[in-house]
Amino acid sequence: MSEKPDVRVITYMCPTHPVELYEVLSELLEESVGCYTSLQYESRSPGPLPDRPDPFTTDKVDLGFMTAAAYMKLREKKNSYVELLPVTPVFAHQMNVENKPGYFSDIIIHSDKKAHNVNTLLDLRGCTFAYCDEESLSGSKIVLKTLKEKGENASFFGSLLRSGSHLRSAQMVLSKQAEWAAVDSTTLLYSKKFMYDGGKDIITLETLGRLPPYPIVVNSRLSGKIKEAITNALHKLPQSAEWKKKLAKFGIIKFDSNNNVTYDGPAAQVWAIQKEKLSVRYY
């Protein structure tokens, strides 16, 4: 009997997503692909750390989960060791009625703000804004793009609080440290049930997007047979009631096709404002 291959998995999506999601995905791959997996997660960055050797280039990882912004940056640098897998998760969201890939940015406020005639994004002028980091498409870039389209600029913001994660941004709104935030919709979907009173005091004021789907990447050195097996295992998720149930609690409905064209067009328009800043003050 041939020895099972090892697949080294890394996720840069925690704490935006719970690490348990990637533990379940690793278990799914072990069963479906017939491999052993080891999982590491890097919570300090949405993609390979800029001041460290890239783990794909140095051949330290085989399979990676990261943000669209991080992947687009790697693609811009033409990293030949990072290859996009043609598959991506599809998450549940009230705006995603067609169950398509991609995600959204939820503009959230505390329910108390409703009593102060806050009904649209523009009503938040001068209010304290919490954001995860300046590179985030959902936590920063889509907000800047939307404000620019409405004739606004960074002077729109009151105080700015860099939270470090979408989860922390949501918690800041709930505890009234911040008056509003732009949060990855998949984070809000999963995390509200663990917040005080189920996060009932968090209100989604508006939803921005759709944003490009989360990329799943592989080390280009990984064998073609394993790449294909991973892709097929994820595509076949809806056929397994057991695995579908396990992933449903994280908001995943299914996995769908993905390709590099997805990160052009509207995605590139959001990415094009990457040089625009929030004029941040750190607290």
Largest sheet: 5 strands, mixed
What structural class do you assign from the helix and strand content?
alpha/beta
Task: Extract low-pLDDT stretches.
Answer: none
Q: Name the helix and strand elements from N-terminus to C-terminus, one letter apiece.
A: EHEEHEEEEHEHEHEEHHEH
The strand order across the widest sheet is 2-1-3-11-4
Q: Beta-sheet strand percentage?
A: 15-25%
| Backbone CA Rg | 19 Å
Number of separate strands: 12
Q: Specify the overall morphology.
A: globular
Helix-residue proportion: 25-40%
Distance between the termini: 58 Å
Q: Count up the helices.
A: 8
- Mean pLDDT equals 90
Topology record:
Layout: E1 6-11, H1 19-34, E2 36-41, E3 63-65, H2 68-76, E4 82-84, E5 87-91, E6 103-110, E7 129-131, H3 137-149, E8 160-162, H4 166-174, E9 180-184, H5 185-191, E10 202-211, E11 216-219, H6 224-235, H7 241-248, E12 252-257, H8 266-271
Parallel strand pairs: 1-2, 1-3, 7-8, 7-9
Antiparallel strand pairs: 3-11, 4-11, 5-12, 6-9, 6-10
Helix pairs in contact: 1-6
Kindly describe this structure:
The chain has eight helices and twelve strands. It is α/β, with parallel strands linked by helices and 283 residues long. The strands form three sheets. It has a five-stranded mixed sheet with strand order 2-1-3-11-4, with helices on one face. A five-stranded mixed sheet has the order 8-7-9-6-10, sandwiched between helices. Helix 1 (19-34) packs across helix 6 (224-235). The longest helix has 16 residues, at 19-34. It is globular. The chain starts with 5 loop residues before the first strand and ends in a 12-residue tail after the last helix. The relative contact order is 0.21. The model has no long low-confidence stretch (mean pLDDT 90).
